[in-house]
Amino acid sequence: MTNLTPRDVETLLDDLAQLLPFPTTLYVDMGAEEWTAQLYYGPVDPDSELPIHRVGIDAHTVRPVWWIDLDEGSRTILLEEVTPDDVCAVAARVAETQQHD
User: Fold this and answer.
1) What backbone torsions phi and psi does residue 47 show, to the nearest 5 degrees?
2) With contact defined as beta carbons under 8 Å apart, do 81 and 63 qualify?
3) Domain extents in the chain
4) Which residues contact 75 (CB under 8 A, 6 or more apart)?
5) In Å, how far from its chain's centre is CA 89?
6) Which domain of life is it from (predicted)?
7) Model's pTM, two decimal places?
8) Dihedrals phi, psi of 22, to nearest 5 degrees
9) CA–CA separation, 33 and 12 (whole Å)
10) How far is CA 36 from the centre of its chain?
């Protein structure tokens, strides 16, 4: 899986959301360059009304890479060792980040 469409990304994020043991929100930022879905989780920021952590896939690279942004992007984790279709490995890493909140 190397050429991911926005629909492919959304499907992978839906699969990820089903594996996580806490609430998530699928969101597409219409102000971004690419309208690709991201999965938000964690405590909610009162200004944006969105959770402060998010996970997504950079699908516009030679090899798509999962990423996790924590605390409104103050720290980013790239999951370069994880293949785009390994949603279980991503779920484990995301759940690990939530345990630290």
Assistant:
1) -75, -50
2) no
3) 6-98
4) 69
5) 13
6) Bacteria
7) 0.88
8) -145, 165
9) 20
10) 10
3-class state of residue 94 by DSSP: helix
> Phi and psi (nearest 5°) for 89?
-65, -40
How many residues in total does the chain contain?
101
Per residue in 4-40, pLDDT tens?
A: 888 999 999 999 999 999 999 999 876 556 678 999 9
- The string of DSSP letters for 28-67 reads E-TTSSS--EEEEEEEEPTTT-SEEEEEEEE-SSSS-EEE
Which tens digit of pLDDT belongs to each residue from 42-101? 999 999 899 999 999 998 888 899 999 999 999 999 999 999 999 999 999 999 988 765
Interacting residues of 35 by C-beta distance below 8 A, sequence separation 6+: 6, 28, 29
Amino acid 59: pLDDT: 86
Task: Pull the structure tokens for residue 61.
Answer: 């690279």
